Amino acid sequence: MSEELLSLKGVNLHLNGNSILEQVKLAVHRGEIVTLIGPNGAGKTSLVRVVLGLLKVDSGQVQRKQGLRIGYMPQKLQVDATLPLTVARFLMLAPGIRRPAAEAALAEVGASHLLKRPLQQVSGGELQRILLARALLRNPDLLVLDEPVQGVDVNGQLELYQLITRLRDRYNCGVLMVSHDLHLVMATTNTVVCLNRHICCSGHPEQVSLDPAFVALFGDQASALAVYNHHHDHAHDLHGKVIPDSSHSHGPDCKHA
């Protein structure tokens, strides 16, 4: 087993009186890509913030490798259109980063030609590469990527996922990725985790199929997803709470106390 970088055990989180995460268990190892999926409001962003140390859990354990370096790629970036900011200058806003390091990071993601470009003039796919380059500046042990292909066309999405895999190999790092595009990432994802406040199920992506229980969970979004084959012993109401569902077989991958 490769080195464990991150471990969450029995994590519970409440915000404004609402239960956001319930008994979440998750681990990421060096060299592993873990893809986190779930419907809107499932707690994915909150889980990412817990991993980054931006939210303190109510109970449970969050363990990080000593000295763990995390490179974070946010879901989106808003930049004032009137702000005079080149790509190079944007990367150099990170503490301790000088131009040679910014240039090297852009080269890693195939975006050297954007160095002098105003940040407001890059395309969606180019911006995602820039954000990925910024995450690499820390020489990370763990990359945390929140919807890394948002706003990118299908061809660009495939290229970005392939790039993420190469970077995983290049840096020998772990990757925790939030995605709605499992049909594109399943070839290189090691573990898929389905979150809906709690961990509904997790498994290897070679088991991917259109599971009826998952289609019911995602509703209209499910038609755009390919998901791994698993069995739920429950369903969720409109508020995400677990309710018994006798129509689904009881499988070993998804149990609740």
Question: What can you see in these coordinates?
Answer:
26% of the residues lie in helices and 28% in strands. It is an alpha/beta fold and 257 residues long. It has two domains: 1-69 and 142-257, 3-Layer(aba) Sandwich (Rossmann fold); 78-139, no CATH class. The strands form four sheets. A six-stranded mixed beta sheet has the order 5-6-7-3-8-9, sandwiched between helices. It has a three-stranded antiparallel beta sheet with strand order 2-1-4, with helices on one face. Helix 3 crosses helix 4. The model is unreliable at 223-232, 236-240 and 246-257 (pLDDT under 50).
What's the CATH class label of the largest domain? Alpha Beta
Order of helices and strands: EEEHEEHHHEHEHEEEHEEE
β-strand amount: 25-35%
Helicity range: 25-40%
CATH architecture of the largest domain: 3-Layer(aba) Sandwich
The count of DSSP E runs of length 2 or more, i.e. the number of strands, is: 13
- Find the CATH topology of the largest domain: Rossmann fold
Number of helices: 7
Work out the count of structural domains: 2
- Order of the strands making up the biggest sheet: 5-6-7-3-8-9
Distance between the termini: 28 Å
Strand-pairing-aware structural class = alpha/beta
Q: Can you tell me the CATH superfamily of the largest domain? A: P-loop containing nucleotide triphosphate hydrolases
pLDDT averaged residue by residue: 81
Q: Main beta sheet: strand number and arrangement? A: 6 strands, mixed
- Low-pLDDT stretches are 223-232, 236-240, 246-257
> Radius of gyration over alpha carbons?
19 Å
Shape: globular
